[in-house]
Amino acid sequence: MEYDATFYALVGLILFFVLLGYLGVHKMLGKALDGRASAIAKELDEAKRLREEAGAVLAEYKKKARDAEVEAQTIVDQARREAAALADEAKTRMEDYVTRRTKMAEDKIAQAEHQAIQEVKALSADISIAAAEKILSARLKGQAGSDLVASSIADVKNRLN
């Protein structure tokens, strides 16, 4: 019987598989594949854990950002309230200052009016005394006239002051 090359190739292949089985290559391949599957599973678990950590960190940073935004808004609101209070206080101080200055000016004006009135009274009294002295000295001559003029001048001075 003559065998062709195909038969020998088949026998060679069968012997090759038997040799591989005898040497335990299938077990080594199984272990290698199991190890590779285990490594891939570990990598997937690590990736999942890292993704969860990243999600937690992201959530934490989002919360911190929201808190910072709320705090910033609170600071801005407080600054606005303080600015309004300072503006009100400045307005009140300015109004008080204007009121005091107006009062001082009015007091000075009243004092100047009073002083002017006193000066006018004093001047009119001096003019009245001088006129009365001239009139009385012209009508009354001698010692009796002089005594009457002196007493009248003293009396007028006492009444005017």
Automatic annotation (TrEMBL):
Coiled coil: 40-78
Domain of life: Bacteria
Main subcellular location: membrane
Keyword Membrane annotated: yes
Localization per record: Cell inner membrane; Cell membrane
Transmembrane portions of the chain: 6-25
Keyword terms, alphabetized: ATP synthesis, Cell membrane, CF(0), Coiled coil, Hydrogen ion transport, Ion transport, Membrane, Transmembrane, Transmembrane helix, Transport
Topology of the protein relative to the lipid bilayer: Single-pass membrane protein
Family matches, as Pfam families: ATP-synt_B (PF00430)
Keyword DNA repair attached: no
Quaternary structure note: F-type ATPases have 2 components, F(1) - the catalytic core - and F(0) - the membrane proton channel. F(1) has five subunits: alpha(3), beta(3), gamma(1), delta(1), epsilon(1). F(0) has three main subunits: a(1), b(2) and c(10-14). The alpha and beta chains form an alternating ring which encloses part of the gamma chain. F(1) is attached to F(0) by a central stalk formed by the gamma and epsilon chains, while a peripheral stalk is formed by the delta and b chains.
Physiological role: F(1)F(0) ATP synthase produces ATP from ADP in the presence of a proton or sodium gradient. F-type ATPases consist of two structural domains, F(1) containing the extramembraneous catalytic core and F(0) containing the membrane proton channel, linked together by a central stalk and a peripheral stalk. During catalysis, ATP synthesis in the catalytic domain of F(1) is coupled via a rotary mechanism of the central stalk subunits to proton translocation. Component of the F(0) channel, it forms part of the peripheral stalk, linking F(1) to F(0). The b'-subunit is a diverged and duplicated form of b found in plants and photosynthetic bacteria.
Entry similarity comment: Belongs to the ATPase B chain family.
PANTHER family assigned: ATP SYNTHASE SUBUNIT B, ATP SYNTHASE SUBUNIT B', CHLOROPLASTIC
Name this polypeptide is given: ATP synthase subunit b
Organism: Kaistia dalseonensis
Gene: atpF
